[in-house]
Amino acid sequence: MARYTGPKARINRRLGALIYETSGASKALDRRPAPPGMHTRGRRPSNYGIALMEKQKIKHYYGLGERQLRRYFDAVSRRSGNTGELLLLMCESRLDNVVRRCGFAKTRPQARQGVVHGHFFVNGTKVAKPNYLLRPGDIIEVRNREKLKDVYRGVIANSSPDALDWVAFDSENLKATVQGLPGPSDISLPVDANAVVEFLSR
């Protein structure tokens, strides 16, 4: 995905959710929860507009481009089960998302940057692709450089990692072990995935 570099507070306000977790964007959403712009207040979006907003939530939250989201959708469409739920579970299995939720980073863009810069190894091999899909048994570790480890120890000390049933996190050794697959209760984004499936099925 071409990385989004615009004002994150506007995205939060436009989508009505805490998509970007930086302190400034969070405060802006608390202060002014209404969508930005002069002519947006009081207007009720159409069903198409609602579905589009739900799709944008997924794209911005997980850092996906349009083509990547559609590839994920095509992949889960061939599986049995709830397509919308499977789509979100695939997004939850991404390396950058797990790095963020374990507490290695405070935001997903920060986690993505760390992965791209080669700060993390998976099963002893450097992985620089944020969209790498983790599987049970995978072990995520910070690259063996003391200065880098000190940086991540500081981040972990000042962050509040999510408790994940499917990932065991060892903060002392800066290691996360994938023990299973995420379930519906592990989805961290409140979104109407079924509306997104209908939108992408057109």
UniProtKB/TrEMBL annotation:
<feature type="domain" description="Small ribosomal subunit protein uS4 N-terminal">
    <location>
        <begin position="3"/>
        <end position="92"/>
    </location>
</feature>
<comment type="subunit">
    <text>Part of the 30S ribosomal subunit. Contacts protein S5. The interaction surface between S4 and S5 is involved in control of translational fidelity.</text>
</comment>
<protein>
    <recommendedName>
        <fullName>Small ribosomal subunit protein uS4</fullName>
    </recommendedName>
</protein>
<dbReference type="InterPro" id="IPR001912">
    <property type="entry name" value="Ribosomal_uS4_N"/>
</dbReference>
<comment type="similarity">
    <text>Belongs to the universal ribosomal protein uS4 family.</text>
</comment>
<keyword id="KW-0687">Ribonucleoprotein</keyword>
<comment type="function">
    <text>One of the primary rRNA binding proteins, it binds directly to 16S rRNA where it nucleates assembly of the body of the 30S subunit.</text>
</comment>
<keyword id="KW-0689">Ribosomal protein</keyword>
<dbReference type="InterPro" id="IPR036986">
    <property type="entry name" value="S4_RNA-bd_sf"/>
</dbReference>
<dbReference type="Pfam" id="PF00163">
    <property type="entry name" value="Ribosomal_S4"/>
</dbReference>
<dbReference type="InterPro" id="IPR022801">
    <property type="entry name" value="Ribosomal_uS4"/>
</dbReference>
<dbReference type="Pfam" id="PF01479">
    <property type="entry name" value="S4"/>
</dbReference>
<dbReference type="InterPro" id="IPR002942">
    <property type="entry name" value="S4_RNA-bd"/>
</dbReference>
<dbReference type="GO" id="GO:0006412">
    <property type="term" value="P:translation"/>
</dbReference>
<keyword id="KW-0699">rRNA-binding</keyword>
<dbReference type="GO" id="GO:0015935">
    <property type="term" value="C:small ribosomal subunit"/>
</dbReference>
<keyword id="KW-0694">RNA-binding</keyword>
<dbReference type="GO" id="GO:0042274">
    <property type="term" value="P:ribosomal small subunit biogenesis"/>
</dbReference>
<dbReference type="GO" id="GO:0019843">
    <property type="term" value="F:rRNA binding"/>
</dbReference>
<dbReference type="InterPro" id="IPR005709">
    <property type="entry name" value="Ribosomal_uS4_bac-type"/>
</dbReference>
<feature type="domain" description="RNA-binding S4">
    <location>
        <begin position="93"/>
        <end position="149"/>
    </location>
</feature>
<comment type="function">
    <text>With S5 and S12 plays an important role in translational accuracy.</text>
</comment>
<feature type="region of interest" description="Disordered">
    <location>
        <begin position="26"/>
        <end position="45"/>
    </location>
</feature>
<dbReference type="GO" id="GO:0003735">
    <property type="term" value="F:structural constituent of ribosome"/>
</dbReference>
